[in-house]
Design a protein that fits this description.
Length: 162
């Protein structure tokens, strides 16, 4: 692949992210949240399970360890953004759910972010926004595949003693 093209794509991607960052940073500061905490809150917000996902499920979703999730949940719980609960079938399993306060906080950031991006999308027009959505979907799929392939290669290397 052409290195200049990759560098251009990375630069423009970084510029796009940088446009939204000030909104996020202000939000995080106002609410006293960190990037990992916000990420966990979004996973909880999107979860459809009635009792919430388990700590293990959250760790898998966030590509981290359960101990890391436990620490994040503890801080979110202290701030009133999340709550723990028991699993009805297995008392060893801890379930986590977003609270009304957490849901409200995320809806605030989503609303601001969406309004900002909507204005940019209006300038682009529907056809280009559709193309962008398709390309971003392909990017996420490619990154997921690359991560999975990298994880498999690493496990094979470790397993073979290389």
């Amino acid at each position: 692949m052409d290195t200049d093209l990759v560098n251009r794509a990375l630069r423009v991607y970084g510029e796009a992210i940088t446009l939204v960052e000030p909104l996020r940073v202000r939000f995080w500061q106002e609410h006293g949240l960190t990037i990992p905490q916000i990420g966990l809150m979004f996973v909880l917000y999107e979860d459809t399970q009635l009792s919430g996902p388990s700590v293990g499920e959250l760790a898998e979703s966030l590509h981290t360890r359960p101990a890391t999730v436990t620490g994040l949940v503890t801080r979110l719980e202290r701030a009133g953004y999340a709550q723990r609960g028991d699993d009805e079938m297995d008392r060893r399993v801890v379930r986590v759910a977003i609270t009304a306060k957490g849901r409200s906080a995320l809806e605030e950031i989503r609303s601001e972010g969406r309004a900002f991006m909507y204005r940019a999308f209006m300038v682009l027009g529907e056809s280009k926004v559709a193309t962008l959505a398709n390309l971003l979907t392909e990017l996420v799929d490619a990154a997921t595949t690359a991560t999975r392939d990298s994880d498999t290669t690493m496990k094979e290397s470790v397993g073979s003693g290389r």
